[in-house]
Structure formats: structure tokens, C-alpha cells
Amino acid sequence: MSKRYDAAQLKEFASTLFQRAGLAAERADVLAGVFLQADLMGFTTHGMNRVGSNLDWLASGESRRDGEPEVIADRGNCFNWDADFLPGPWVLTRAIDQALERLPEHGLVTATIRRSQHIACLAAYLPQIVEAGYVAILTCSTPAENTVSPQGGRDPLFSANPLAFAAPAGDYPLLFDISMSVTAGGYVSRARREGRKLPTQCLKDSDGNLSDDPAAFEEGGSILPVGGADHGYKGAALSAMLEVLSMALGGYGRGDKSAKDDDEANSVFLQLIDPQAFGSRGDFLRQTVALCDLWESGRSDSGDSRLRVPGQRAWSARQRQLREGVELYPTIMQDLQPWADKLKVPMPEPLNP
User: Fold this and answer.
1) If 83 and its partner were Cys, which of 91, 108, 301, 307 is the partner (CB 3.0–4.6 Å)?
2) Keyword set for this entry (predicted)?
3) CA 25 → CA 46, 83, 321, distances in Å?
4) Which residues pair with 295 in a beta bridge?
């Protein structure tokens, strides 16, 4: 049985680790909250699992502890920041706060951020937006990363390029967080660590052969784009689009030699939409609720279960884990124990020892 932890205690634990690593309490709380939110919704590779890497970046100086993002451009309804390696969850949360403040006036606010340290799970930023009644589109790319090969090619070109979306609906929002690769690098690394194969041949080795062995990726191979070996041109096209939105609009990416040394730093694209800028909230919700209801009530292939709408499981898991405790992937606390010992922070006690 997996161990469960009180959500508030997990957040306090992570925040204290970040504070002992030199972050101000307010910034540490933001990071801890973002990572916790990811695990609450079931995105286990980019939640508390990313606390250790962020502590590494703070310790090495790869993440800036202090300072503000530089404003490159600002027209009110759109702005572009240079984060200069500020912690990704903090700087993106700042950008979302700015966009939310401006949304009542503009109806639609778009932002880009260049050189943000890794922003982790995109879905983790969506609850506050969708609960306020707004639509969110969020994507990022990694200029220094080449892990995903284009259709027909064996050389990795793109980063995973996740795309997250949320819209208010009925009992749960329409919400998803997907990468433009068949699988995410975090799942490949986890499979390699656990000594198991991936469920499908979603990789290519360095010679262009399809593979389900994580070692093929680690030894110079690549991850297939969405659509896989047969329809990967769709995923490659979407990858290119998202890199244009994040890197090109932000003005920093693959065209800059210095970007190759940026490790996991992200280029970010964010857009918030107020449905009431286009019509009544009731009209909007009538359509989104109908869409989710029709989807959920459709016939399943097996005939004995209801279809699951994107967002339904994550929203349910979030509510359940806030009540009953957060179920962490088994290796997460194991990996955080050395940091807790080093920074002299007590480990949280599980609710079910």
C-alpha cells in the first residue's frame, strides 16, 4: 500500500527545504505549492519529484534566488519577460498573477517568458485560472533540449513541448496536459531506473530502429513525436508550432548559440481568455457542459464503462487527495531524504505508516 501524506504538511516540508536553500519564504511557498498541485492531480513525474532538481539548481547557482524578471515588452494585453534563470514555478506564477489582474480590462492576455528555469508540471498552474472562470492555454519548450525526432528522422530535434489547456465546464473542468511526444522523458527515465521496458515502441535508437528499451534513448536515440511511427508528422508539426509560440515570440531559442548551455531552462507561452469578453458566461458554460456530457455518455469500446473526459480524473484525484492525503510515487521521499538530512528539515510522517 502506497504511503499518503497530509497535503499541508507536504507543502510546508518542501517550502522549508527551499527556504533552507536560500529562497525567501514567499518564493519557497510558491514553488512548494506548484509541485504539490501536480501530485494532487496525479502528474507524478513533475510534482514533488522535481523538488530535488530545483534544490540542486539553487545550490549550484543555476537558479537565481533573488531579483525580478526583466520586462522586454509590455502592451498591456501582452508582455514578454526575461527571467534570467529565476525559479520557473515562481516566475510563471508571477506572470499568471499579472495576466489575471489585466484580464477584466483586456478580455484576453498573452505572455511569453524567456530563460525561465524549468516550470515543471503545466497542469499545476491551471486550477486557480479555471476556478476564476477563465480559459487557459499554456505551453513551453526547452531551447537546450533535443529529445524528440521529427517524422522520418533519426536525429532528435524538438524538446517534449508540453501543452496544457483548461476551460470551465460542469462538475469538473475540461483540462489536459500533454506533450508533443508519444511519452515524456520523465517516464523514460523512470522506466530506465526501474529496469523495465516501456509499454510500446515509442523510441528510436541512434540507428533509427523502433524500440521500447529506455537504454536506446539514453544511448543517443530519440522519442517519437505524437502520432508515432505512422502519423508522427502531426506531432512534429505541433511541436514546431509550440516552439514558434514560445521561443520565437519570446525572442530566444534555437537561433541563439548561448541557448545550448541553458540546461532545462524553458521558453514559455501563456494565454488567458475571459469567455465573457465574447458573450455571456451562461452561453459559454452551456457549450462546455454539453460537450463534456456528450463525451462522457458516449458508448465505450468495452461497453461496460463510461468514457473519461480529460480533466475528470485529475480533478477527482485532487479533491480526494486533499481529503484523504497525497499518494506519492514510492521513490520521491527516498530521493528527498538526503536533502532533508543535509538541510536539517524533518521528514513528514505518512498518514498510513
Assistant:
1) 91
2) Oxidoreductase
3) 22, 19, 25
4) none
